[in-house]
Structure formats: C-alpha cells, structure tokens
Amino acid sequence: MSRQITGISHLSLSVGNRDDSVAWYGELLGFQPVATLDCDDYLETICMDSNGTILAFQQHLEGGAAYHPSRHGLDHLAFSVNSTAALDEWATFLDEHGVTWSPVADTPFGKVLCFRDPDGLQLELFAMAGT
Questions:
Q1: What are phi and psi of 2, to 5 degrees?
Q2: Could you give the CA distance from residue 46 to residue 56 in angstroms, rounded to a whole number?
C-alpha cells in the first residue's frame, strides 16, 4: 500500500534559544547538528542521534509564550531505552550533569524516568514492560 506511514521522519521543537537547546540535547542525549538554517523569522538546527532519530530546534525570532503542557500541542517527548537497567544508568548520568529527574515510575506499559529540557518540555526515558 503506497499510503502506508513507515515511521516518523522528524520532530521539530520550538525553543527559546536554539543554540542552548542544541548544546543541551547534544551533551545529554547525543544529538549532533547536521544542518543549520538562519532565516529572517526563525533559526533552525537539525540534529540526529546515532540511531538516525532526527530532532529539529526552531527559535522563532518574534518570541512567543513559554512552553506549558496545558496548551494544545506537544505534551511530552518519550525516548525508548532497551531495558529497565538502562534507566538506572540514565539516572546516574543525569545526576552527574545536574539535571533534575523524577523517580522511575511503573506504568501499565513499562517503566519511565521523566526530566525537563531547558524550555520546560517534559522528556521521558521509557523501558517497555518485559525489557
């Protein structure tokens, strides 16, 4: 079927400071810049991790309201990890980098560790049940 969705191509996040976000996501989550655009009304950097996941960071120059999860749009972004043991390793890594995180929580689908990016967007590291 030619209309079949084969995956998510990329995710673009509106951020308060593109360069700060690119540095933060690079240092903590391994996303590396692959392209940068400086346009009249926005700045964008496209980044990729070692698995080929693509995140774009757009700083709209006219400003705008700060992120809040109660607004329509993105509520949180969850990254998968390969085991619950990996969550413990991530917790140690986040501590070493001064990132506040919530205790690992059980959900009906697996275990999750939550933290926030520099703009306040909730990020999750998620280990599916049985891993």
A1: -75, -20
A2: 4
Residue 87 in tokens: 């969550």
Residues 71-103 as b/e (b if ≥16 CB within 10 A, e otherwise) read eeeeeeeeeebeebebbeebbeebeeeebebee
Q: Can you read off the two tokens belonging to residue 65?
A: 């309201």
Tokens of 91: 């917790």
Q: Are 114 and 95 in contact (CB under 8 A)?
A: no
Q: Which two tokens stand for residue 13?
A: 């996040």
Give this prediction's pTM: 0.84
Contact 113, 87 (CB under 8 A): yes
CB crowding 5-14: b at 16 or more within 10 Å, else e: eeeeeeeebb
pLDDT higher than threshold 80 for residue 7: no
SS3 at position 57: strand
Higher-confidence position of 130 and 45: 45
Length of the chain: 131
